[in-house]
Amino acid sequence: MGVTSxxxxxxxxxIVGGGTAGWMTAATFSKVLTNYDCxxxxxxxxxxxxxxxGEATIPQIxxxxxxxxxxxxxxxxxxQATFKLGIxxxxxxxxxxxxxxxxxxxxxxxxxxQFHHYWLKMYQQxxxxxxxxxxxxxxxxxxxxxxxxxxxxxxPLSNIAYAFHFxxxxxxxxxxxxxxxxxxxxxxxKVVDVVLRHNDGFIESLRLEDGELIEGDLFIDCSGFKGLxxxxxxxxxxxxxxxxxxxxxxxxxxxxxxxxxxxxTISTAQDAGWTxxxxxxxxxxxxxxxPSQFVSDDEAVALLTSQMETAPLSDPNFLRWTTGTxxxxxxxxxxxxxxxxxxxxxxxxxxLHLIQLGIAKLLSLFPSKGFEQVEIDxxxxxxxxxxxxxxxxVIMHYKVTNRDDTAFWRFCKNMxxxxxxxxxxxxxxxxxxxxxxxxxxxxxxxxxAVMHGQGLQPKGxxxxxxxxxxxxxxxxxxxxxxxxxxxxxxxxxxVDYINQHCKSPTxxx
Length: 509
Fold this sequence. Notes:
alpha+beta; 22 strands; 14 helices; 6-stranded mixed β-sheet; 7-stranded mixed β-sheet; 34% helix
């Protein structure tokens, strides 16, 4: 490929494992390293299954596809995708309650003060509706509407935030075609041995089942939960977060749909754990995330099937994990990306984002053969910080709740929590303040959606809100609500939008 790199440059990258993580990594490298003299090889075995169920995403995935130059309509057709405007949480605050965590923002900030402080003042007096009324994405989701952003000046329709639901297996195949067309070599085989260098313990080569020895400079571990390289060979160690997030199992089964496709994911809290519903064009992805100490596998299957709208299309697909992260995602000349680096349950659809993040940080700190330790340390610090922030956000869903009706929910309600999350909750409880730190993934709007949705009630609001009269605040809130209502009313239904732009026919890769 193109320009010759310096003699100490990485000449060969070996990616172990296909699936979504492996082919996202390979596709990105094949695009970004086009003019870098480097061979990219993906080793995957058809004998080894991948963790691929219906996949829900967050808006960052659209940026990933854009960087690759992927046509969005084509991607949607090939992966049987639908659009996603947020997540509806059912029975989390208490049984019978539901709220939406929408993408996008609430209202418009006023006089440099966050919008929700003005809303809080009026809401606490019973003079304003729920915060969801000020979110275009929340209202559109509930009405089954969707549109891509339109060039309409300062209209809310100019900044619609959305993501996708898609078939992860089809997405991996789509990216595999993209990567191999860009020069990536796919090697069918199963790694049976990892050969380490005697002098420094770096990975030197991989031995396949047929005896072939494959050498490389940089090794990317996309082997899933087992961490074949990062843990199996390098013994990196693992930081276990199960004390905060005890769900360690999932079972997934698809079914056919009996209703119009909803443009949002549904997460329903159960007596222990939660179930997901992810609508694709050709089926519904269903799953149950549960703690094995409270729920058996047979009980999980029984509960999931009882809540599905039609009969399962396949046998149960069981997943097992330990929540947490490797002590180091990058160790020596090996970088773990995806499940091999760590796992946080998919309550907020962060799995693919963490793959994206790992790839992006690796490219920004792309090594030479010298593998400078300060660059490795920087990568690990940044990845670990992001994992911890996402972990804390997910913990909040379990901790902040009125539910105490089962042993599981009593455990969650009474458990200790990380200091960062404790401070975040206390700050909001006092005067509704929310701050985004270190460019963490979930912004102020996301924290507000979940804290309010789960029942946290601030004692006050930002004192500078009182510089506006209640009459003026009320006038502005009503105007914002009116504009959002009108904007949503002219959006087409998601079904009509997909039928017009990106409906999936029957096809083969």
